[in-house]
Write a structure and sequence with these properties.
Blueprint lengths: L7 H14 L1 H20 L6 H11 L6 H8 L3 H13 L3 E5 L7 E5 L1 H22 L4 H11 L3
Antiparallel strand pairs: 1-2
Helix pairs in contact: 2-6, 3-6
């Protein structure tokens, strides 16, 4: 007797419904598309979008510890440290142990890093304006704010 398989039409319809309605999947898809859009436009600046965001976070930091930076970015310290080391190797930032507490590491942009960020900001402004013609940037900001409650 042949084995019965679930109807492919039902599985296909259920999978399509899941993909169309899944907030997680659609957020990832949107994030990949927006990231690629901005990456393409930042290409000539010498920094990726992830590096740009990290350097901007460092530039605005009131607390310049790696622990605080990781918390603001929603990353674990080991993941953040790998990215920081790349930027440090490129001479864009410095990492040092705090004198008062040897367990605390401080991070800041070098002069080269600040200049690179300034150049990237100019490209980002234009890219972000172009993005705003296609996608509601306000809606993206609202989604990010609302997702903080998670």
């Amino acid at each position: 007797m042949p084995r019965k398989h679930p109807s492919p039409k039902t599985l296909r319809a259920d999978a399509r419904t899941a993909l169309e309605s899944c907030a997680g999947w659609n957020a990832r898809l949107a994030a990949r598309r927006i990231t690629q859009f901005l990456e393409d436009r930042l290409q000539g600046t010498g920094v990726s979008l992830a590096q740009f965001g990290l350097m901007a976070e460092i530039a605005v930091a009131a607390d310049d510890t790696i622990t605080a930076l990781a918390a603001r970015m929603g990353l674990d310290q080991s993941t953040l440290s790998r990215t920081l080391r790349t930027l440090e190797t490129d001479g864009l930032l410095e990492i040092a142990v705090a004198d008062a507490d040897q367990r605390r590491k401080l991070v800041w942009l070098t002069e080269k890093g600040a200049r690179r960020l300034e150049a990237a900001l100019a490209a980002w402004r234009q890219a972000h304006a172009d993005l705003g013609k296609v996608v509601s940037v306000d809606n993206v900001h609202q989604l990010a704010r609302e997702s903080e409650r998670l």
